[in-house]
Amino acid sequence: MYNRSTREQALALLAQGRSLNSVSKETGISRAAIRSWQNRIDPLPRIQQTPCARCGPAPEPPADKAAYSYLLGLYLGDGCISPSKAGHYLRIACADAWPGLIEACAAAVAAVNPSGRASRVQAVGCTSVVGYSRHWPCLFPQHGPGKKHERRIALEPWQQDLVDAHPWEFVRGLIHSDGSRITNWTTRTVGGEPKRYEYPRYFFTNVSDDIRRLHTDTLDGLGVPWTRSSHNISVARKASVALLDLHVGAKH
After folding, report:
1. pTM for this model (two decimals)
2. What is the domain-level CATH number for residue 106?
3. Both 124 and 84 in a single domain?
């Protein structure tokens, strides 16, 4: 879990005559780990797994920028990152009613995951698309303790650049996670007779003010009018729905 630079810094403190206990307290690294580095400073091969684009001396965006923008929307909607012993699990919950969404999600996780892998974990009524990597917090710095709507959610500048470059993918990820395309109806009196009219509408529902704002800011940049009611963001104008049908589409 620790790179060579961190290990060298800990050993440099030991070389100053410090005790294992004091170095451990200062760095937060266990004494056992520091002691083992005295015999082997390089990480074991299984820990030296594929680095991500964000970990190098000159961090770069992920290679598949469109897939990342889509996965970012999915993560902000229905995703979470959980730590494990030597890495992190990214999980995106997908309802089994939408097999096409599960496939699209798995493709995005595999495209962004430095290992190129994604798996599926079945539960009652849903499938979690899962990717394991040490690097998910690098790729999704919004990860943190507590629920998303109880803490501030903001994009890093490099993430905003990717969303600006691939806004429809981001909107599609948000709507595919916490949104829907529905058909509303109303009645009007025509020639003295009530007539039913149907019209499609897109919704995005999220209790986080910050995540809703990311959605509406992106819609604004695309020139898509929207309205808000409580935690719901609605797009209902005919031309705007046609745009979302072209670039987003209903879950399937």
Report:
1. 0.78
2. 3.10.28.10
3. yes
